[in-house]
Amino acid sequence: MKKGIIISWAVVLLWMAVIFTLSSQPAADSNKLSKGITEVVLEAMDNIIPEKEFDVDDFNNIIRKNAHFFAYLLLGGLVLNALRLNLHRSWGYRA
């Protein structure tokens, strides 16, 4: 059980490091990365809805906002899992 707690907190710290690294990028590099992802998404959407036109810049903004949301949502889930394991251990519950 102690090993699971250590691993769960290590994953939290690792994900925080990923967020910090991505947040530390210069704006131009970050925008280049997200535009690349946006282009892949738009290509997939073009296969699904070929008659619809999408503006890359508007869609890039949506992709960026959702990426932030999901990055911090995942961080919150990882922290809750680590806390749950800690509480189960300290209160004598079995996970």
Overview of the structural elements:
There is one protein chain. This protein is mainly alpha-helical. The chain has one domain. Helix content is 84%, strand content 0%. It is built from three helices and no strands. The protein has helices spanning 2-23, 27-48, 56-91. Helix 1 (2-23) packs antiparallel against helix 3 and helix 2 crosses helix 3. It is elongated and about 60 Å long. The relative contact order is 0.16. The model has no long low-confidence stretch (mean pLDDT 89).
Note the main attributes of this structure.
95 residues, mainly alpha, 0% strand, 84% helix
Summarize this entry quickly.
The protein contains 3 helices and no strands.
